[in-house]
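Record 1 of the preview.
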Amino acid sequence: MYISLAVGLALSQGSAQPQITVYNQGFALVKEVRTFQLRNGRQSISVEDVAQQIETNSVGIRSLSGGIEVLEQNYQYDLINPTAILNKAVGQQIKFHRVLPNGVKETVTGTLVSSPTAVVGNQQGGGSMTWNGMVIQTTDGRILLNPSGEIEVSSIPTGMISKPTLLWDLMAERAGATTVELSYLTRGMTWNADYVLLLEDESLAGLKGWVTLTNNSGATFENATLKLLAGDVNRPRPPATAGMRGGAAEARRQDLGFQEEALFEYHLYTLQRPATVRNNEIKQLSLLEASGLKYTKKLILDSLRNYGIYYPNEGEIGTGVLKPQVRVEFENTKTNQMGMALPAGNVKVYQRDKSGSVQMLGEDRIQHTPRDEKVSLVVGQSFDVVAERKRLNFRQLGTRAFEQTFQIELRNRKEVPETVFVLERHYGDWSVGQTSLPFEKLDANTMQYVVNLKAGEVIKVTYTVTTRW
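->
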């Protein structure tokens, strides 16, 4: 038993090396060059091995040799499967084979009255799958409800196909081989960057970047030219329904891995070798590798970071025993063995212990980071550096005027010196009167103390601030 899909249909003779541009928003642009044997006049051509998650309104076909006019384009996806065949066989004669409890094999002939499932419309204009159960009316008048056994149909319903197929109705000016360029968008493909930062000593580190590519589009692309686009490409949402030695990283990317270029307001990364991207596959590819980059560790005490805009009142926030945040920062510059636009991704930070084993310190996520910008990673909280913040004085000067005195005690319980950056946030019209240490005003709402602590030292920072609004 077989099914004939079309008569006189021109099939493509396969694709030359396809080109795939994968976006980090869950879709990809596929471009292929195919050859068709056409006859003169009107005819149909089809391509069967396209991605199952193709966006049909994005399909484009262009003759590279001219001489054709596309009249109509269709995407057929009524695929052959047992459920679909049974749904289309309702009302038709079938044979039902089963084994009775006494071991006797029985074949029943009848009409399929109801298939196990059906798609029904809803009030929103859509459809949903419902479970009906199977009902067979035999030729002798019996009604079988949800029988167990094997169903035999006489033929595959008309119009069903084994693969999703693009079908074009076109006019050809001449007969012979015609080369066309086929392009379309497909869902089900995405990529993201992942990085490993290994701290080699107190000031130098190595960075390894990976690309993780996921293909669930329903198609396999053999020996494809792979491009990755990093950036926030605007697309309307559909309506809701129910290492190496320092300085060698750039050369390695160009020779063996990805080459980066600016494209409009985005960045494009092109793999410098063919890659086979199989359906239902997660593939990892090297993006960059560099060592000898300089980094700094930074301890930051920002007691009001998560409170938003705050005006003084009798209640206190941001006081008590606090743990400074630990950050690792480095410059993404060529002089620091980097200088490549970094796609957004997660960065895992590691360091070797005294035995030489690698231990994980923390993980953070970076956004798309241009070259010559600073990368700042939150690693965790300090264990041995402790802070305690108190409000020593609170006085109301008027309806919207208050005077407050704060004390931040910093205790370094390490055997080595540390530096803590203390950030204090105030809103409205504020001014600092007395202060035990000099500070820097970073912006309209933030002041910063830089406190250098010797091993085992305790330092108290005290200041008085007046706020009006």
